[in-house]
């Protein structure tokens, strides 16, 4: 059996050409940026799975995620009216739920502000 280097393993896993379970990806040597993406995806799934659809964040799930995972990036997230305002600005298609892409754009806005790119 030929050994596969971690980079090729990741590439083939992403391309879906290797019939392996995703847990093997965590055994390979992922970069810090890949680990950051993995964290965002896994945290979104963990919080989105608490109620309603497993694929979207309700307002309650968003509030729970913000207060536990982003306490230094989002102020007053425990205030329900603040979460209401945030939800309505981030929920682009106004269906009352945050899809992963809507969540990702919100993270992008946070990161942009944090990085000083909004000045
Ligand atoms: Ca949900
Ligand atoms: Ca939405």
Amount of beta strand: under 5%
Give the cofactors and ligands. Answer: calcium ion
* CATH class label of the largest domain: Mainly Alpha
The CATH superfamily of the largest domain appears as EF-hand
Topology as a string of helices (H) and strands (E): HHHHHH
Question: Which features would summarize this protein structure in a list?
Answer:
119 residues; mainly alpha; Recoverin, domain 1; binds calcium ion
Q: Would you spell out the secondary-structure blueprint of this structure?
A:
Layout: H1 6-15, H2 23-27, H3 32-48, H4 59-69, H5 80-90, H6 100-114
Helix pairs in contact: 3-4
Bound molecules: calcium ion (2 copies).
One calcium ion binds next to loops.
Give structural notes:
It comes from Pangasianodon hypophthalmus (Striped catfish). The protein is globular. It has 119 residues and is an all-alpha fold. It has helices spanning 6-15, 23-27, 32-48, 59-69, 80-90, 100-114. The model has no long low-confidence stretch (mean pLDDT 87). 58% of the residues lie in helices and 0% in strands. The longest helix is centred in the middle third of the chain and has 17 residues, at 32-48. It folds into 2 domains: 1-29, no CATH class; 31-114, Recoverin, domain 1 (Orthogonal Bundle). The structure holds calcium ion (2 copies).
């Amino acid at each position: 059996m030929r050994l596969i280097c971690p980079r090729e393993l990741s590439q083939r896993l992403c391309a879906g050409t290797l019939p392996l379970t995703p847990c093997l990806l965590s055994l390979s040597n992922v970069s810090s940026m890949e680990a950051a993406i993995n964290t965002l995806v896994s945290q979104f799934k963990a919080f989105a799975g608490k109620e309603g659809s497993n694929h979207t964040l309700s307002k309650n799930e968003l509030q729970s995620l913000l207060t536990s995972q982003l306490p230094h990036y989002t102020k007053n997230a425990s205030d329900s009216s603040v979460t209401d305002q945030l939800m309505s600005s981030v929920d682009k298609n106004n269906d009352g739920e945050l899809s992963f892409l809507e969540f990702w754009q919100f993270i992008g806005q946070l990161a942009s502000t944090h990085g000083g790119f909004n000045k």
